[in-house]
Amino acid sequence: MAHALEGRTKTLIELLRERKRLLVLSHSNPDPDSLASAAGLRLLASTCADLPSVFGYSGKIMRAENREMVSSCNIDMVRLKDVDVSEFDCLALVDTQPGFGHTHLPEGRKIDIVVDHHLPPESPFPAPDPEFLDVRTHIGATSSIVTGYLMEAGVDVPTDVATALLYGIRTDTADLARNASPLDEEAYDFLLRRADRQALSRITTPDLSHDYFRTLKQALTNTRIYNEVILCSLGKIRAPEMVAEVADLLLRLEGNQTVFCGGQVEDLYVVSVRTELERDAYYLIRGAFDGIENCSFGGHGRIAGGSVTLPDTDERTVSRIERRLERNILKTMGVDGVTVKGFGGLRE
Ligand SMILES: [Mn+2]
Predict the structure, then answer these.
(1) What is the CATH number of the domain that holds 65?
(2) How far is ligand 1, taken at its centre, from the CA of residue 142, in Å?
(3) Taking the CB of residue 59, how many other CB atoms lie within 10 A of it?
(4) How many domains does the chain fold into?
(5) Which domain holds residue 120?
(6) Backbone angles phi, psi at 269, to 5 degrees
(7) How many angstroms separate the Cα of 80 from the Cα of each of 60, 104, 105, 302?
(8) Which end of the chain is more exposed for a tag (fewer CB within 10 A), N or C?
(9) What's the predicted TM-score (pTM) here?
(10) Pick from 174, 204, 234: which residue ends a domain?
(11) For the purposes of burial, counting CB atoms within 10 Å of the CB of 108, is it exposed (0-12), middle (13-18) or buried (19 or more)?
């Protein structure tokens, strides 16, 4: 070890040294920041505490970039449903916290370690408190917090883990352009010297499936433009991330745009909001879901998202929800009597 340890990193390593087997968990449909944080925490456990570990995930990894990251960075992961949780005497949660909606934890098990950068849930933290709790909301990525432990502990970070952590920071901070703290910058510099830049380039611009371009074609055909408000329906999609991706793309249309993009993933109707207005995106998504049952949503700043659980997957049910959302959105955005356009010209 490079130097005498103190503070959080020391406490964390001491806890890891007392345990026999570590299970690392995150939110469902793990994103790059959570995949990288899990890999980084596992590296800390093996190098500093000789502690074997497993990363158990739930949900799917659909986005092409994230799949390329898993393969290029050798992210080792097991479906949580195939894991016998009773074999582990240490449970860690990264990039999320107990009580978050998208986080499904093994029942009746205490979480020992929580490392995250999100605002804690509004309801009180489910008891008992984890033994090690490191939630720093001013940090841009959980990957930066984990890289901080590795730097302090003097761990020799191998290329694949460094590449993963760097990509985790890049996605959560938009390349240090959003919510980046001094720790994010320090971690970024540390990792850049160790990362595989060719792998990073593969991850950033992966091969895309025919399905992806089919969805994109559908998106551009179905886009409805009401001056600065853009609505887009993707129909049935396989990857829920696609609504966010298309919303990001449409936001780049010249002018001060606000984008609402929706799509059906099995029995969920998923919506993403992006805005360049000063108005917080949270109020826009709240307005969009006004009076709609079985929905959940969240967001802040320029980004928000949410979903509705559909009572059935009948086409009429889906178009009824879409019409309701559209009415709500136009009302929320104060759009009235505006001519609707698409990319091909006027629309009815
Ligand atoms: Mn994150």
Answers:
(1) 3.90.1640.10
(2) 5
(3) 15
(4) 2
(5) 7-204
(6) -110, 115
(7) 12, 10, 9, 33
(8) C
(9) 0.85
(10) 204
(11) exposed
Q: Please count the other Cβ atoms lying within 10 Å of the Cβ belonging to residue 314.
A: 10
b/e for 149-179, b at 16 or more Cβ within 10 A?
bbbbbebebeebbbbbbbbbbbbbbeeeeeb
Distance 326 CA to ligand 1 centre (A): 30
CB atoms within 10 A of CB 52: 13
DSSP letters along 145-157, please? HHHHHHHHTT---
- The Å distance, Cα 116 to ligand 1 centre, comes to 7
Distances, alpha carbon 246 to alpha carbons 37, 146, 216, 292, in Å: 26, 31, 7, 23
Gap from CA of 117 to ligand 1 centroid (Å): 7
Residue 1 pLDDT exceeds 50: no
> What's the 144 CA to ligand 1 centre distance in angstroms?
9
Contact partners, residue 23, CB within 8 Å, separation at least 6: 53, 54, 56, 83, 85, 88, 90, 91, 92
Residues 87 and 155 in one domain: yes
Residue-wise pLDDT tens digits, 225-254:
998 999 999 999 988 889 999 999 999 999
- 292-328 pLDDT, tens digit per residue, is 999 888 777 788 889 999 999 999 999 999 999 999 9
